[in-house]
Amino acid sequence: MRSLHQGRLRARVAVFACIAAVAIGIDQITKACALVALGDGRTIRVIPNLLSLTLVRNPGASLGMGSSVTGLISLLACAACVLLVALAIRTTSMLWTVAFALAFSGAAGNLIDRVAYAQGFMNGKVVDFLDYGWSVGNVADIFLMCAGLGIVLLMLFSQPFEDEAAAPAGHGPGSADGGSVDGAVGAGACDDHPTDADAARGTRRT
Questions:
Q1: CA atoms within 13 A on the CB side of 122
Q2: pLDDT in tens, 91-133
């Protein structure tokens, strides 16, 4: 049972690592392309009145909030990444693992910008280029949005965070300890109730 649990853990770790590597890679590549293609200030309209490509350097969080506390936002992002890794290791559900991997990718993708373009203590500006008209974001933000939506759906559909089958063995009714206890009780019952042969021998002695 323990080897099976470790095998499943390795599989979840591999899935988490693959999703994170691919997602962070896509985020950083698209940001690099945006810096090259949109660095002169141009705007490329993709879908009229819905989506444009415009380069924006965002010192804050989503929707430009917290632009004056970039260092604090970076520290919170670090803590979030550590927490997401811990949750991914703790869960036994592959669906939860995927959700945590997407959330980690989004947080780590923007954290990389804050470190790579920092002029002080992790105060770099995040590269945003997806202009929706009401907000400007990037691919990392999309991963964060997908992760948030996925977590809500998992909670609504009561997806277990931990599988009951992964509980420690030896405490169930069919475990070895349970069997030995039953055997001891059965043996005690036999000692308390003499057999017919024992009764016959006692009669002859009297």
A1: 14
A2: 999 999 999 999 999 999 999 999 999 888 888 999 999 999 9
Three-state SS string across the chain, please? Answer: CHHHHHHHHHHHHHHHHHHHHHHHHHHHHHHHHHHHHCCCCCEEEEECCCEEEEEEEECCCHHHCCCCCHHHHHHHHHHHHHHHHHHHHHCCCHHHHHHHHHHHHHHHHHHHHHHHCCCCCCCCCEEEEEECCCCEECHHHHHHHHHHHHHHHHHHCCCCCCCHHHCCCCCCCCCHHHHHHHHHHHHHHHHHCCCHHHHHHHHHHC
Rounded Cα gap, residues 142 and 78, in angstroms: 19
Q: How many Å separate Cα 152 from the centre of its chain?
A: 13
| Owner of token pair 């009297």 | 206
Active site residues: 128, 141
Amino acid letter for position 99: A
The torsion angles phi and psi of 38, rounded to 5 degrees, stand at -115, 10
* Residue 168: both structure tokens together: 């420690």
Whose structure tokens read 């390795």? 10
The pTM is what? 0.76
